[in-house]
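Model: Ready when you are.
Researcher: Fold this.
Model:
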Amino acid sequence: MDDQGVQGLSLSEAAARAGRSVKTLRRWIQEGKLAAVTVDTPHGPGYRVTVEALDAARRTVTAVAHRQPPETEALTRALTAALTEREAHWLTAITALQQELHAVRSELGELRDAVHRPALPAAPVPSEPAPETERTAPARRAWWRWWGRG
């Protein structure tokens, strides 16, 4: 495109008029906040911005920058509702875990009682001692005493 055929402001003129830097206007163009047309210039491609598009972008950015903070009471109600819901979820989970713990403790008590119950009477022990084995293993000599003799 030719620079003379396009109406509008160059980026430096638009930046001076808006009171912003050229980098800011380029960022607005990339983010879609400012409408611009690409043109061929002697130094390479450039942007042309219409005065109406510049004023619309300034109004939009100013409105967003000066937005009123949310009401404190509304924010407090929203947070309270969210935390109450989360608390109810955790209380349900804790109650289920407590019931499970109670069941495990009951089972553990029953097992402990079963272990400590008196055992059945043992079988009578014979009065005669068991015969000893007649064969005994020979004493083994320590082989290291004779190692190296020779």
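Researcher: Now this one.
Model:
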Amino acid sequence: MPANDLLGTIFPLLLIVLAFWLLVIRPARKRQQEMTRIQSSVAPGSEVMLGSGIYGTVASVGDDTLDLQVAPGTVIKVARQAVVRVVEPTTATDHGTRTDTTDEQ
């Protein structure tokens, strides 16, 4: 089999693999690293949002769990991996709107 024929059959496959890596694997890895960074930076007093949409204030932090105050006197224990956003505190100029530290895509 001549070298040109072999290169002609392998080149499209290499392009497909490269495109898959650029469009799927690389962005997923970047999102995972960002989620790990967010989850490891949670500290007591931070307001967070869980994947289920529950907002609360971190009361205490364990190795793999958080105690989250969701209402006065109501504290729940959740897995650290459940945190998807750390919410920035609102100011008087925000007019009560919440912002978070992650970029929506």
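Researcher: Key takeaway?
Model: The beta strands are 47-50, 55-61, 65-71, 74-79, 83-88, 99-100.
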